[in-house]
């Protein structure tokens, strides 16, 4: 009889422990779900989309990681993907919710190695489409040639009535003075004060079109260097990435810059750098 009672006790204990285990799994799952839906409380949320333009040879991965990280952190929401086809037509995936979730619009160029003049026209095509969808304001973020083409859009078109107003503009590792490095001719301080001592045709184009840029537009220039002793991110020099600082400041634009150092500041790693993520989020939404 004692053996039967003891057996029943053991069986009940096993079932009790199994029940506790299931409860613990559910609790852990609930915590994980809560973590992945966390909304960042130190960020201002609005329905203004942020448009991301990749660089030369860029793909969906170019800004895909940054957009996903910022989405996971509750700082923005991945919503729309627009691919500009080789004939200039648009392939649109997703939909803007028009909710206050800092939506993203990732732009891809099928001809991802075309010239900056064509890219500038494609930027206009995308923004014109967004205007037709009822979007009145956007933020604009460009990496490398994406930054070059975005600024060329501004110096060419300014603020057209058939495109959304640009609230803020960020350029990441953009070669605004082509691949010229003036480090041997001037310090960074002199560059920021006076502009590049040697000016490529690209920079001269910006200078000629500067009056078209809305002078109240806040701008952030982000640049990288591989180490304290280097003057470039391995592809674009600091002096080129920061070349337009003086030009835009003298035009009246509120402008800031940040320099990142180390392996994660390498040109194609800048959009994977968590500190760059933070700089982007702070400038756009804080």
- Number of distinct helices: 9
Order of H and E elements? HEHEEEHEHEEHHEHHEH
The CA-CA distance between the termini, in Å, is 72 Å
CATH-derived architecture of the largest domain? 3-Layer(aba) Sandwich
Helix content: 40-55%
The number of distinct structural domains comes to 2
Record field, number of beta strands: 9
What is the residue-mean pLDDT, rounded to a whole number?
A: 89
Q: What coarse outline follows from CA principal-axis ratios? A: globular
Low-confidence stretches are 1-37
Characterize the main sheet.
Answer: 8 strands, mixed
Name given to the CATH homologous superfamily of the largest domain? Alpha/Beta hydrolase fold, catalytic domain
**CATH class term of the largest domain:** Alpha Beta
In percent, how much strand structure appears in the residues?
A: 15-25%
SS-based structural class? alpha/beta
Biggest sheet strand order reads 3-2-4-1-5-6-8-9
Tell me the radius of gyration: 24 Å
Reported by name, the CATH topology of the largest domain is Rossmann fold
């Amino acid at each position: 009889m004692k053996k039967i009672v003891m057996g029943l006790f053991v069986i009940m204990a096993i079932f009790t422990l199994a029940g506790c285990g299931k409860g613990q799994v559910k609790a852990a799952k609930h915590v994980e779900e809560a973590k992945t839906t966390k909304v960042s409380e130190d960020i201002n949320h609005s329905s203004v989309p942020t448009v991301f333009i990749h660089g030369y040879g860029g793909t969906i991965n170019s800004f895909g990681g940054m957009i996903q990280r910022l989405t996971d952190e509750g700082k923005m929401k991945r919503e729309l993907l627009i691919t500009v086809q080789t004939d200039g037509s648009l392939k649109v995936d997703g939909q803007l919710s028009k909710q206050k979730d800092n939506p993203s619009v990732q732009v891809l160029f099928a001809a991802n190695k075309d010239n900056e003049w064509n890219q500038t026209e494609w930027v206009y095509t995308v923004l014109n489409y967004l205007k037709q969808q009822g979007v009145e304001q956007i933020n604009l973020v460009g990496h490398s040639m994406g930054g070059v083409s975005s600024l060329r859009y501004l110096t060419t078109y300014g603020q057209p009535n058939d495109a959304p107003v640009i609230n803020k503009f960020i350029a990441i590792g953009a070669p605004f003075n082509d691949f010229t490095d003036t480090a041997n001719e001037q310090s960074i301080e002199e560059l920021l004060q006076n502009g590049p001592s040697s000016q490529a045709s690209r920079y001269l184009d910006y200078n000629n079109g500067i009056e078209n840029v809305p002078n109240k537009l806040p701008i952030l220039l982000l640049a990288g260097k591989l180490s304290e002793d280097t003057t470039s991110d391995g592809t674009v020099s600091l002096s080129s990435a920061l070349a337009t600082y003086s030009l835009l400041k003298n035009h009246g634009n509120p402008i800031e810059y940040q320099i990142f150092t180390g392996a994660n500041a390498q040109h194609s790693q800048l959009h994977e750098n968590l500190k760059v993520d933070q700089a982007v989020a702070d400038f756009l939404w804080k």
